[in-house]
Amino acid sequence: MKKALLLLLQLGVVASIATGCAVNRATAHVEPGTRLSEIKTVHVKKFASDNADTDRLIADKLRTKGVSATTGTAPANKVDAVVTYVEKWMWDITMYMLELTVVIRDPKDDYPLATGNSYHTSLTRKSPKEMVDEVIDNIYKEQGQ
Amino acid sequence: MNASLRARPGMTRTSLTALVATLWLVGCASPANREAMVPTDVTAARPHPHSVSVLASGGTDTGALDSSNIADEDLKAAIEEAVTRNKVFTSVVQGKNGDYELSVRVTRLTKPLFGMTFTVEMEAAWSLTRVADRSVVLRKSINASGSAGAGDSLVGVKRLRLAVEAAARANIAEGLKAISALTL
After folding, report:
1. What is the pLDDT of residues B113-132, one digit of tens each?
2. What is the pLDDT of residues A76-126, one digit of tens each?
3. Among partner residues B26, B118, B139, which is closest to A15 by beta-carbon distance?
4. H helical segments located in B27-103
5. How many CB atoms lie within 10 A of CB B9?
6. B171: part of which helix (H) or strand (E)?
7. Residue B88, SS3?
8. Tell me, what CATH number does A52's domain have?
9. What rounded mean pLDDT belongs to chain A?
């Protein structure tokens, strides 16, 4: 009986602090009127809690799309778009990137022009580079490029 | 293991009952409730003397094994109700027959995985277009957050849903305040 109560207590603690299970997801959206082909220069703004030099990975990926990309906290020159991202990490034996959201913004007012998000749990985990590739490719695919 | 279970069948039954009871108690995540996302503290100076139609996108359905999300149709219904309740426009219409078209797209919904107090951040792209000439009169990225603590619910999945709803409520309130400030 005592062990059962202990089990119940442990399950109760897990139920209390956990937010739910998870699924794998990959989505992208490009705002109507936005032409990604016209975005030739971007600045990838470094996320404060970046754990994997994700800004550099995003910039490298964008360069493969023919875009000139810089990274850091603020752009040195005028750019066609600013790229922001949020990454979420999880631990399961080792740390892995659980979720990555990339937003391509109008530098004038920060308005989101295009968004991509990938979410992969432990069993189908991807490396940060693979996550970046998937998100950026999905954004460009969304506009048929 | 079998020997010990046979030796203590009561223990096994009690453990299984405890497990089932806990799973039943926790359940799976439920989507954000549309009524709970409606802000009531938006004080529009005066209703815009026009009609508006609402489009919502970027939301995600809540799967059986997922955490709480905001579905597009629930966000749309919450915004429509908020526009009506707070008298931001004189009427809300369906389809493309309104004087204005309000588009709200969820671009980011950042949710915690663990914790006692959950804080959810929501970014949405708000745009208001005059239908007659398709001119954009408002284009704004709105960031808002909402929190729920152990005092709101001891069950994690419910606490997260409450935080998601609070973030959506705050975002809708900010968006409608921005629209109320316009001269249309």
Report:
1. 788 999 999 999 999 999 99
2. 789 999 999 999 898 889 999 999 999 999 999 999 999 999 999 888 899
3. B26
4. 72-85
5. 9
6. helix B156-180
7. coil
8. 3.30.160.670
9. 86
Residue extents of the structural domains in chain B? 1-28, 31-180
Residues contacting B168, CB < 8 A, separation 6+: B32, B37, B70, B75, B78, B122, B146
* Contact between B120 and B112 (Cβ < 8 Å): yes
Fold of B31-180: Rossmann fold (3.40.50)
* Probe site for chain B from A8, A14, A16, A19 (most B CB atoms < 10 A): A19
Contacts with B30 from chain A: Cβ below 8 Å: none
Residues of B in contact with A103 (CB under 8 A): 107-108, 123
Rounded to a whole number of angstroms, the distance from the CA of A91 to the nearest CA of chain B is 11
Q: Does A11 map to a domain?
A: no
Cβ contact, residue pair A90, B113, below 8 Å: yes
Instruction: Decide if A28 contacts B165 (C-beta within 8 A).
Output: no
Residues of chain B positioned with their CB less than 8 A from the CB of A122: none
Does residue A15 fall inside a structural domain?
Answer: no
Q: A1 in a domain, yes or no?
A: no
Does A37 reside within a domain? yes
This model of the complex carries an ipTM of: 0.72
Question: Given phi > 0 = left and psi -120 to 50 = alpha, else beta, which region is A66?
Answer: left
